[in-house]
Design a protein that fits this description.
This protein is mostly helical. The protein has 2 domains: 74 residues, Winged helix-like DNA-binding domain superfamily/Winged helix DNA-binding domain (Arc Repressor Mutant, subunit A, Orthogonal Bundle), CATH 1.10.10.10; 50 residues, no CATH class. The protein contains 5 helices and 3 strands, in the order H-E-H-H-E-E-H-H. Strand 2 and strand 3 form a beta hairpin. The protein is globular and about 50 Å long. It starts with 11 loop residues before the first helix and ends with a helix. The model has no long low-confidence stretch (mean pLDDT 88).
Length: 139
């Protein structure tokens, strides 16, 4: 079944959920909620209700599969969910990459390396690792 979602803008939350499930494998809803908090350093935490409504909607669309019963449900990405993620993540990644590059360059120029906290250095280190893998693919 081809998803009819995301004809214009995709929800950042649904793309993040798919990205986490692709990277981490099947997860319970609460573990997924905690992972979102970790990824965003708790700066953006959707409510548990919002997350479960989204997961149920994504399951109806065939983007994720639910297994288990009651409170012990686990969610995993489906092949349709992977296809959806690949098809819809490029545009927001392109936009956010440009914003991130501009902001980092300005921070470095305005405040120098002292502005780079240990937390930011850690996150940028992880980003550099991913970018190195991507660099191998593009050139």
């Amino acid at each position: 079944m081809e998803s009819t979602r995301c004809r214009g803008k995709c929800s950042l939350l649904e793309l993040l959920v798919l990205a986490i499930l692709i990277n981490e494998g099947p997860m319970h809803g609460y573990a997924l909620h905690k992972k979102i908090q970790c990824v965003t350093r708790a700066s953006w935490t959707p409510s548990v209700g919002t997350l479960y409504r989204l997961l149920n909607s994504m399951a109806r669309e065939g983007l994720v599969a639910k297994s288990g019963e009651g409170r012990r449900r686990s969610y995993s990405v489906t092949p349709a969910g992977v296809e959806y993620f690949v098809r819809n993540s490029t545009t927001p990644l392109t936009r956010k990459a440009g914003v991130l590059a501009t902001m980092l360059e300005a921070l470095l120029r305005a405040a120098g390396e002292d502005a780079f906290t240990d937390d930011l250095r850690e996150r940028l280190g992880a980003l550099v690792e991913v970018l190195e893998k991507c660099k191998e693919l593009v050139g």
